[in-house]
Amino acid sequence: MSSLAKPTIKQIEKCTDFSQLARGISHVFNDAQSTLSGHRKLVILLRKIQVRATQIDSEEQFNFQFTKTISKMLNLKKGEAAGDRIAKFCSLFVSTMAKQEQENPTLRIDPSLKSEDESDTSDVSDSEQEKENVACEFIDYLIRHLLRGIESRFRDVRYRIVQLLAYLVNHITEMDEQLFSALKFSLNRRLHDKESMVRIQAVVAMSRFQYYEESDPSKINHATKSLINALKHDDSPEVRRAALLNLVKTSRSIPELIERSRDVNAINRRLVFSRVAKEIPSFLDLSLEIKESILNRGLNDREPSVRAAAIYLLTKTWLPQVNDDILMFLENMQVVDSSAMPLAMNAIFESHRDRINTIVFPQESWNELTVEKAFFIRSLYDFCSKHDLYDCIDENIPELSKLAHVIQEYLKLRSSMLSSNAQLVDEYLEFHNKAESLHRLVRNGEGDLKDLQRKVEKETTIIAELQSRLSEADPKINKLQTQLKSLKAATKDGDVDKTAFQQKIESLEEELNEKTDEKDEFILLLSEHTTSLTDAEVLLKDMEKAQVHREAERNKFLRGTDDLEVKYRPFGDQKKDLEFVLEQILLIIEKSDFADVAGTRRLMPIITSALTNDNLNESNVAICIRIIRKSSIDENYFSQLCTEIITDIRDSALGENDETFMSAASLFGNSSLVDDDENDDLPSEDRDEDADADADAENQPDKRRKIAPILPPDNLLIQCLVVLQYYLEVAEDTRCNSYQLDTLIDTLIRPALVNNKNSRIRFLGYKTLGLFSLIDEGLGASNLKFFGISASKAHDEDLKALCMQIIFDIVSTHGVGILDIEGEDAVDSLSLARLFYSLLKNTEMPHLQAVVAEGLCKLFLADLLVDFGKDELENDDEEALQETQLLQMLLMSYFHPLNHENQELKQILAFCLPVYCFSHTKHQIKVSSISGDCFYRLFRTESEFAEYENLASSSSVLQLLIYWCDPRNVINATQAEIERSASHFWQAMKFLQIIEQDTSRAVKRLIIGNLGKLSITEHLGSEALRGLRIAISDTRLHILSNSSNPDFVLDQASEKNLEKFYSSIGELIMKADALETQKDVELGTVSETASQKSSRALSRKPSGDLPPLLGVEDVDNNELGEQSIVSTEKAKELDDGGTRSEDMNVDQAAEPEIETTEGVEMVDENIAEPEVESAEGVEEVDEKIAKTRSPEKPVAPVLKLVDEDLSEIDKLLAEDDEIEYDIEDQSE
User: Fold this and answer.
1) pLDDT for 821-880, tens place per residue?
2) How many CA atoms within 13 Å lie on the side-chain side of 1071?
């Protein structure tokens, strides 16, 4: 065979030297990397070479040559066509070889090559012929060779090796157990490779191991576990997609696959419906929960493509499995409690719209409605009403009077069913109340335990602090005693001045007495706190025992009532189905035409009677209230009718001749009804009424006091409150019926608020009082304090969340001005802000955190917190800037490691924070003013968050902050507004300050590397840009002056990036000067020289809206604000046109302070106006500035070169290092 010619089959069969076969292998691989079209022919050729090599006893040489050739393509990058072709060629060759070897094994030695004597004397032994199958030997050799490089430091090598293994594992027949374990272990490690492209191939390879059974069949396959882990936790959507498509579908893996319908990647979500769910044999085999989640997530997805895939799955895959029978489909779904079925039915009707007119619902079917039929007819009615298909409605839906008759018959059926099972209902109600009481006791005990545990921790901390102070006091006292003893001994010497020594002795004795008294005070405090701690620990042990006993009693009671649960379940299901049928009929009635006067007159008594006597469930009560509102002639009639219904329900428990008067004073004056502790939580007006009632009774002992009757039973009280709640949700104006509603507050809501025996009654009391507060501003202002106290002191997380929702609704409805009213129950903004802080930081209640965050985000988006708290304190701006502090708290909550598992909170903030930033330029400016503080707090050298392992990386946080503050992301912003936006300008100033602070070298390098991503344009104005360049220069000087500190030693790339950023700002300054010169010419003014422009560098503002660098103070600390970012007055905004004002009032343009190496930095007034720390400093600075002023016209300090400015600053600092510049007096 020629060394250059391509081998042929005949030539291969004649080869006796492996060197000729080796050249043939090279030719084959050379052709294989060119195109895929000839791979099958090349595989046949390579297979002939292998067979020939085996026959001439060169099998090992063939394996070596093959792997040697394969190794040459391992360094090819992903996407290289040659590498992909070679990988596919190898896969095709191995599969062909394995198939052929299975059918016709290859003989290892050609019999024609043996001598006749050898041939005659003996045959090839079976051990040699069947030593190892050629295919197994080859695959074993190839896999061992590839595993040698699977841990390579080159990502391309790892990628190609795992890619080849992913192809090869499909054709593994037999393998050494040790090699099999090594292969699986290595691929499992590659699932955690830092490169996503490697992890994708590892997922594909590991998916083949799912079909190998584990030693214990009851356990899930190890490979399946690894793929599920990648499916749930991998950061790359492509890796999750590979796991999604390759994971085997079993009863344990299907829920994990369906969970990807909530994936952040739209393609992955779409594949769940278009591939995964479609591959499940029958949706009838799925559980109701999985089917519900599939429809609910798919039909409500925000992406149209995902919704389309879910609709296609429903109409083209699931429905055909039940022969397009909608009623049969509904029977296999969870119709009663499903929130997705209305959307599913709408999708079904849309896909079969041509068959809508063929639907016929017999009139006699209305008398025997099932759950499925009722839901079907209601969905059909909704669809036809939405699309104006009135012919279908007329044919299938009866008129209003007939519907009234239908609903009346089903209400009678429900009443008869309840009457026949009254004893069972009473037993179950008693059981439910008893269980609720036991649950309440356990919850209250848990809350008391937490409070006592916090007290023990607090006392322990105080004792440790006192012991530390005592340990420090003893050496000081001993030292003073030693000094005093030596002085007294010295006075005995006659040669010394006793008068001088006596003064020192008296001074030491006085100091010693002070230290001794201080020590005695510490000892006394230590004794008190130790006693308190001992008592608390004893009480804690007793409470723990009591809590264990309460839990045991509850569990014992629940176990003893299992039979009742089993007995009640059939009746409960039947009742639930009947109420669902009633709900569907009521929904149809609600959307009917109430112009039918006869039908309306027949319907209204039925609805009012049902509300009064039938004790409907909440959903039906809500629908009935809406029906009454729709059929009422005006708001006054509607309000009176609802009040009468509530009164009738309340009075139904009283006797016919019971005319006892009941008032709020009698309710709360009776000590048997309200405890003192409970009365403390009531609104002050209620407490005043109680006190007045008691005083009147004491002053007039002979006067007979009217005693309140017993309150209605809990079930009637709940019924009244439910009707009242849904009435208040619909009511638009209650002034027409204010007297009756005030009576309801006294007789229903206030007793409900102090009901600690039934949590549902108390919840309804809070809800209804909150709804009243939304309607009446005065009632909202007076009860805001009550809701705040309840949110702060309640143990129940749900009650806390409800109170916070009410507070946010009150503030949203009536505005923050409701906080400025005067009175005993007035709530100041500072107290409300502290409540927000404390609850948002309470990681023990994640749902409450989410509620507070959501409420704050809504207030911020509506701009209701602008100037929040500024009217509280006249002389303390930092305490008054509550809006900025709350915004910073939201940002810190998003990045806080302790909130990492709170997905509800993370999802709310992940949506609301970008929306807030992108909704308006002013919002973006506010976020940019606090982003530096947040980043500094998270990643400073001794940060409180450094101990957490799940803290987000500094790179991701920084990039997210830059993205949020990018002016190009603001919605509906014009190009001019984007160019004038100063959000990234302020971020640059903040980031430069962080570089100068105690941050690590990695953080400094990260910030410098991202400075070039900031959107800063020449339209900000030359003076602002000059101030930024000065800040950059000061940062560079600060880095040079701290070169001995390892954290300030930058690499060459960082230095280059900082220099590049400095140069880019210089170029922008030149462009800004040219723009301003051109603008001056257009306005007809005299063009100023560069030096004149520089002279105003400390008195000019940028053209855009530049807010001050507000010092954001957290509840605990404000690290960055304490060191460098100091808040001053709010910056004065310029006109949108960006015109320069020569007579700008500098008093209104105070800007934040920028810290330099020496502590003071002269910057453009647009950037920072230094803050004066003392009156003496102000006078000295003003005196220095006055010397440089012209008597005719005040002129700002002249800005020349950076070095000259720094030298002038050094001179002033040499005189007084504490002086900071204030140019407010230069405004005139």
Assistant:
1) 776 777 888 888 889 999 998 888 999 999 999 999 999 999 888 766 655 544 444 444
2) 12
Q: Look at the block and give the residue holding tokens 């002016």.
A: 967
Amino acid sitting at position 90: C
Specify whether the CB–CB gap between 614 and 428 falls below 8 A: no
For the segment 969-1007, what is each residue's pLDDT rounded down to a tens digit? 999 889 999 999 999 999 999 999 999 998 899 999 999
Distance CA 671, CA 879 (A): 42
Closest CA to 819 of 759, 745, 880, 878: 880
322 with 328: CB under 8 angstroms? yes
Can you tell me the distance from the alpha carbon of 852 to that of 864, in angstroms, rounded to the nearest whole number?
15
Are 980 and 1020 spatial neighbours (Cβ–Cβ below 8 Å)? yes
| Burial class (CB within 10 angstroms; exposed 0-12, middle 13-18, buried 19+) of 1158 | middle
Question: What's the rounded Cα separation, in Å, for the pair 345 and 382?
Answer: 10
Nearest to 841, CA basis, from 892, 799, 806 = 892
Pair of tokens at residue 147 = 């595993």
CA 299 to chain CA centroid, Å, is 23
- Can you give the three-state secondary structure of 745-757, one letter per residue? HHHHHHHHHCCCC
**Whether the Cβ atoms of residue 49 and residue 25 lie closer than 8 Å to each other:** yes
Mean pLDDT of 700-712: 52
Of 871, 869, 859, whose CA–CA distance to 923 is shortest? 859
**Nearest Cα to 763, choosing from 783, 788, 790, 782?**
790
Question: Model confidence over 1006-1021: pLDDT tens digits?
Answer: 999 999 999 999 998 8
Both tokens assigned to 199: 């992890």
pLDDT for the residue 870: 56
CA proximity to 967, closest of 982, 957, 956: 982
Closest CA to 865 of 904, 826, 816: 816
- Confidence band, pLDDT 50/70/90 cuts, at residue 214: low
DSSP lists the bridge partners of residue 999 as: 940
pTM above the 0.85 mark?
A: no
Q: Could you give the C-alpha distances from 1143 to 1096, 1147, 1165, 1186, 1228, in angstroms and in order?
A: 11, 12, 14, 18, 8
**Would the pLDDT of 807 be above 90?**
yes
